[in-house]
Amino acid sequence: MGSIFCALRDPKERREQGAIYTPAAIIRSMIAWAMNQRPEPVRVVDPGAGSGRFSIAAAQAFPKARIVAVETDPLAALLLRANAAVLGFTARLTLELSDYRHLELAEVDGPTLFIGNPPYVRHHHISEAWKDWFGRTAAEMGFKASKLAGLHIHFFLKTRQLARPGDYGTFITAAEWLDVNYGKVLRDMLGDGLGGASLHVIDPAAQPFPDAMATGAIACFTAGNKPPALRMRSVSSLDVLFDLSEGSEVAWRDLAQSRRWSVYLRKERPTVHGIELGELFRVQRGQVTGANAIWIAGAVAEETVPARFLRPTVTKGRELLRAGERLDDPSALRRVVDLPNDLSVLDATERRSVNRFLKWAKALGADKGFIATHRKAWWSVGLKPPAPILVTYMARQAPAFVLNACGAFHINVAHGLYPREPMDDETLLLVLRFLRGSVSSHSGRTYAGGLTKFEPGEVERLTLPRLDELREMAGA
User: Fold this and answer.
1) CATH topology of domain 278-473
2) Angstrom distance (rounded) from CA 331 to CA 345
3) Which of 251, 261, 253, 259 is nearest to 279 (CA)?
4) CB 204 within 8 A of CB 448
5) If you placed Cys at 350, which of 106, 254, 271, 346 could pair as Cys (CB 3.0 to 4.6 Å)?
6) Where are the domains of the chain?
7) In 271-356, at which residue ranges do the beta strands (DSSP E only) sit?
8) Residues of the chain with pLDDT under 70
9) Residue 218 bridge partners (DSSP)
């Protein structure tokens, strides 16, 4: 039935609703983990149930348990009811056609199993009312929550609210919460109240989510329980996923102090004497133009804007990917119009030319866009100074770290690394070469289509040896 639903609904539409259906191999592994818990659940809660893949598996594994399935899509809920009727567990099924965050549970004599694939919806599509609920509910439990959190984090919080000591559960979600700031509330919950037992991160090549090439994370938890360590492992294939009790133990005291959990999944752990890149560099995303078709210089700009306001700029990630270690030739780059806020600094001839350009830009609505209306002057893009090192923001491979030897500017397709203290060229190269050789796509977030994304904060949390160790490693 779920396969029929996926055929009926366009993948893009399902992704917007967070309806990413789970392969059978993953469901079997999660159910097998639940079957090893004691005592058996008297109730199973499947949030974001869809057509009922988890509900069906749980009903078969636990023939005495009541099934509470929560789903907002009437069509998916209809398919779930059909599945329940055919498979004979309608009498045990309570189907809530509602948002999981509204769910209330009665007291039962025995544990509740929470299991499923919470919908992945980014914060842009979550209402302010629900964001306020999220912040308020987290604060009531003693956690600090960010409004940038996606819907799957909301579902974990609701589960933390509903679960009672002795309840247990396992959810599969996208893995980005391991490292990003807005995932901290979930990391904190697993260490306090939700009772993280194990974590299994699935490589995107194993396709944990159909229609979306993204990294998956299965979190297993036991409410009210806090073992001294969390079992963690990285899985490259669904064939070896099965036993969710496996993994290397990582002490909770170490996890509580760590800003990135993915480092504990690498074969080589960060050295004790390592530092974060952010201790050496500020990482800033390039400027948003608001209208690339206008501000990336075309024929009109080249003809009217004085050359001193046309800045050679990295405007595409592939320009850095092609450059190799060094970006030397600014002539291969496009130029961005970067006019000053105060046009009175222009001489009369320049001002006449710039006015012609601005008249053309205004006719295209350049002064009306969201970015333009929030600038001090709508015509001033305000490029950041050239950064000594540039790094790609999003690509289908590891990020490209490039020495900006030609002093190019950059827009928001790349980040700039700015030393916090003066740094000579030799040291810059040592840092650059270490990053180029050590940072993989697994250090970022993998999205649909295999794109790996690095936000500035994620780049700043990359680890490397201290500068004196780097020099020793290089024989300097």
Assistant:
1) Adenine-n6-DNA-methyltransferase TaqI; Chain A, domain 2 (3.90.220)
2) 27
3) 259
4) no
5) 346
6) 2-265, 278-473
7) 275-276, 281-285, 310-314, 334-337
8) 1-21, 204-214, 266-273, 395-397, 440-452, 475-476
9) 172, 200
